[in-house]
Design goal:
Bound molecules: flavin mononucleotide
Largest sheet: 5 strands, parallel
CATH superfamily of the largest domain: Flavodoxin domain
Helix content: 25-40%
Strand order of the largest sheet: 2-1-3-4-5
Strand content: 15-25%
CATH topology of the largest domain: Rossmann fold
Distance between the termini: 19 Å
Number of domains: 2
């Protein structure tokens, strides 16, 4: 079974590609997902595929792992994870390993997978140029085949299977808490009423069902359960949604899936 969280579709695409190669099933994680996987046999694998946010795990994934049943005698199952990212993951693999270990689960293999960047909310961060996307896509296809071979053989990953980037400790243990504290609340989302047509696509796209539409104006209202995937920002056909000042005039990615 592959459990997947995805805001804008990269991780979902990776999960479905892996599932095709491994003949597995994909289940999407949301806050309502029951995390009690029904293990069908000793051979069954438990895969997690999700994006890296602020050099750590999205909040919804942290919640999912915290609700996993404590592993008992069946703790020998094969557990692996694929962390999609725009650039690098810092020490997200270690944060994940520790979170799983606290539930008694052992992470046997972890891979980072560079895909289209979706983060646009700080100065210097924007979506990738088309040429970069092309390069990342073709490399990701090869990486997914490598991951499928390793997982198919119930293998372990090597340190080369993750890209921590520069200053990984600083990013994941010093910057990440600040990022989570100040830059992930949905209070900073803003809808430009003059551009919004009230189509409701943002509401339908939000994987956490965190958006309600204003009964009169039909503009989005965020409800405080945001994991900061930016699905609402990217999906808006009129670019009517911003996240603070710095996301203005940035690009949008096409949502996959
Ligand atoms: C809030 C947020 C934070 C992000 N932080 C990182 C990061 O720390 N490192 C990185 O390489 N990419 C980062 N990204 C980019 C995403 O991890 C990457 O584009 C991912 O593949 C998106 O997956 P999805 O389409 O399944 O949501 C971030 C994206 C968002 C929306």
């Amino acid at each position: 079974m592959i459990y997947c969280f995805s805001g804008t579709g990269n991780s979902l695409h990776a999960a479905h590609t892996l599932a095709g190669l491994l003949r597995e099933r994909v289940i999407r994680i949301t806050d309502e997902t029951q995390p009690c996987p029904a293990w069908q046999g000793a051979d069954e694998t438990f895969g997690l595929v999700f994006p890296v946010y602020g050099w750590g795990m999205p909040r919804v994934v942290e919640h999912f792992i915290a609700r996993l049943p404590q592993a008992g005698s069946d703790g020998a199952r094969y557990v692996y994870a694929v962390l999609t990212c725009g650039d690098d993951i810092g020490r997200t693999d270690r944060l994940l390993r520790k979170a799983l270990w606290q539930r008694g689960w052992r992470l046997q293999a972890v891979f980072s997978l560079q895909m289209r960047n979706t983060y646009v909310c700080l100065p210097g961060f924007d979506i990738d140029a088309p040429k970069t996307v092309e390069q990342k896509d073709s490399q990701a296809r090869l990486r997914l085949q490598h991951i499928a071979r390793c997982v198919g053989a119930r293998g372990s990953s090597t340190p080369g299977d993750v890209v921590p980037g520069a200053f990984p400790w600083t990013k994941s243990y010093l910057l990440r808490p600040l990022f989570n504290r100040w830059l992930t609340s949905d209070r900073h989302f803003h809808c430009h009423a003059a551009r919004c047509t009230g189509c409701g696509l943002c509401k339908r796209t939000c994987p956490l069902h965190n958006i309600a539409l204003d009964p009169q104006a039909h503009t989005p209202r965020w409800q405080g359960r945001c994991t900061h995937c930016l699905g609402c920002y990217h999906c808006c056909p009129h670019h009517a949604i911003d996240y603070g000042f710095f996301s203005r005039h940035k690009g949008q990615v096409k949502i996959i899936g």
